[in-house]
Design brief:
Blueprint (H helix, E strand, L loop, with lengths): L4 H8 L3 H16 L7 H26 L4 H23 L2
Helix pairs in contact: 2-3, 2-4, 3-4
């Protein structure tokens, strides 16, 4: 087994972790009222976690580079969903 196998595996899942962290946030927004109980705090925690994961992905991109258009497409999707969730969190008190 070569030393580059983990790097290739990590490159394949680029931008997936932030999107997976945003999925429960979207579900909370659809299924629950964010203003009731602890949902607002949980929503902000998930959004912050997603933001940190996006920062980690950007560090990996700057270090390795991303040359495939599918990865850039996924990057755009993650940033769009992140912005959409931020707007949803700011609009609902």
């Amino acid at each position: 087994m070569s030393d580059t196998a983990p790097a290739r595996a990590a490159a394949r899942v680029t931008w997936t972790l932030p999107l997976l962290a945003l999925a429960p946030l979207a579900a909370i927004g659809v299924l629950a009222d964010r203003t009731s109980g602890g949902w607002n705090g949980i929503s902000w925690a998930l959004w912050t976690l997603s933001l940190l994961l996006v920062a980690v992905e950007w560090t990996a991109v700057l270090r390795r580079g991303t040359h495939r258009s599918t990865r850039w497409g996924m990057c755009g999707v993650v940033h769009a969903v992140l912005a959409w969730q931020l707007i949803a969190l700011l609009i609902r008190p």
